[in-house]
């Protein structure tokens, strides 16, 4: 089994640029060791300071900038030149700064989370005994708040919490139903593979309650035998006396590229709008087709300022997305904006 | 090795790179297991190189160099996962419009299933055991959990993988 696993792990191909990236990491560290960064803000934001090298090779190799929740360096560079978001992005997302600074000060920060939802909280999880956390809480908050303030972010409350490792106890036991569904899943996968179809994955589509709705087969665009694949899979489901649907999803590389850019835009806007209290934004979500930004605010529709807040947000987004810096990034993407009040009324 | 580490501690980046290069493939694969795509895995290794060179003075003994690098890689990868999870606020009702796979065509299916079946902790442990041939004690030291827990996590992970292993005709 050992060699079989080894073989599987070896399937992870080592990219050509690995050595170059290692060198880059080391040279960044060296540069900082030689000329220490002045307190209080370390200029290092390594997650986001991917060198131009990376962008070029990544883009050249695949032509893609696929759906990262991170703001890509391209967007960041554009943002950095744009006054509205400049304070936020010239040094990268603020959570990274807080993390690096606390680590640098010797705190054993395990993670910093910004929970999704309407509460604007930044939770800093520290791995240390309770007493130590209690005694350092004020200092940690002071550092974090200082960094937030330096970035013009005034909408968040900082919480310091003890890091608890997530562990699961015991082995997961499948229910009889799950076993059947899993068997079908396996059969579809195996049968399609044996029959030589090309497909990316066989997935399970689950509804909100966790009930299985359908099997999805992701197929690259050049695989033309989708009708046959569908028939084969449907037969397997029917043979097991089940009624779940089978759906073929065609993977389109161009769509993925556009979706990646859209996700990056949403990330950039989330941080920019949610971080400043004047916008009163609680959350930003989006729909892909048509690309719609759904912005939930904390103002009531009857609030006298509601229209003003909405207009402010709309202007900020329009101005940002139509700026020359963003031109290449927004290319070919049209967007709609829905600004919602606290009582779920559309404000714009 | 000790000499190289001493040199590196004095700021000799060439010495450090010589040491690091020996483990970079291992670290990259470890990172990939967690983040599941090439770009993020490269980020993690770059960050690991950055952090490890910068903090080399905190390495207690050259003996622990590899373990130390693996630890940094794991925590960096998990940090990245956590950071990524929260930056975009996506409500469940819109989630279905997101792509369902991670679009890494280089990935073979059995590997993909392994990636999707195991928890982060299980991945690390299976990887250290079967890829790096670590002993249970070494794994316990690296992952910083008790020996008995390593065994039970490993057992659980193998149980989960049994199907996949059979499926891959291993």
TrEMBL record, chain A:
Transmembrane segments: 51-71
Transmembrane in keyword set: yes
Protein keywords: Membrane, Transmembrane, Transmembrane helix
Name of the molecule in the record: DUF4030 domain-containing protein
Species of origin: Fictibacillus aquaticus
Automatic annotation (TrEMBL), chain B:
A Pfam family it matches: Sigma70_r4_2
This protein's UniProt keywords: Sigma factor, Transcription, Transcription regulation
GO biological process, one term: DNA-templated transcription initiation
Residues of the RNA polymerase sigma factor 70 region 4 type domain: 110-161
RNA polymerase sigma-70 region domain segment(s): 19-86
Residues spanning the membrane: none
A single GO molecular function term of this UniProt record: sigma factor activity
Keyword Metal-binding: no
Protein family (similarity comment): Belongs to the sigma-70 factor family. ECF subfamily.
NCBIfam families to which the protein is assigned, alphabetical: sigma70-ECF
Entry protein name: RNA polymerase
Species, as recorded: Fictibacillus aquaticus
Lineage of the species this protein comes from: Bacteria, Bacillati, Bacillota, Bacilli, Bacillales
